[in-house]
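Teaching assistant's notes for section 4

Start the section by putting this record on the projector. Ask students to predict, before seeing the second block, whether ABC transporter will look compact or extended. Collect guesses on the board.
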Amino acid sequence: MFVQHLQFAYPKSRALLHDVTFTLQPNKLNVLIGMNGSGKTTLFDCMTGALRPQAGDIALPDQSDILYLTQSIYYSDELKGKDVAYFIGRLAQLTDFKKQTTYSASLQSRREIDLFHHLWQMKVGKMSAGEKKWLFVTLLTTIPRALYMFDEPTSGVDPATRLHIMRRFEKLIADGRTCLFSTHQLHDLLHTDAHVIFLHDGSIVYEGDFQDWLQTFQTSDPDVAFTKMLDLATEPERANTMP
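Reveal the predicted structure now:
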């Protein structure tokens, strides 16, 4: 699965994505990182067909075999967790889509099982942002797909829930699925086998192993590596603006 030489611009505006090229690794967590406004969500939208790029090749599974969770989750506050599960289960044509165990069978910890049981009966409007994200990730990863894409699934989520979400992604990889997600929570990657794709100002400035990326900047702190990567990426821009 890969993206090659992708370019995209909104009408009557400058190009937002420039010659974007990268390859998704099937046996690693693929992680898209970058500053706010760097083009991450636009790239996801191009990859899933929500936007049509002006140029480039996208070699991914058929759209019916891709699951994409955007940052914004739109459901009526009056719906209960089980109603959301029924909707997702029916769309995915899951057997016994009304059974709670259809979605919770793969949960490993008692805390997750108890939380799922609690949210099953709770109205969406009463859930915290973190509970909503955890519930949606749990429900959606029950659906078998070749490629899973999540846009900032751990933002606004407490550390314990982030850990559960990361373990959910790792299970997808162990089951032979490909997973790509964007995040600003770089410390979550310290104990995972991650393939990093760094998007800056619409271009890929780094692609490779997460630990190799840290070693490049001689640090064990991903936030420090991120800052140094930005400094390195903006040096040509500074040179072009010098008198």
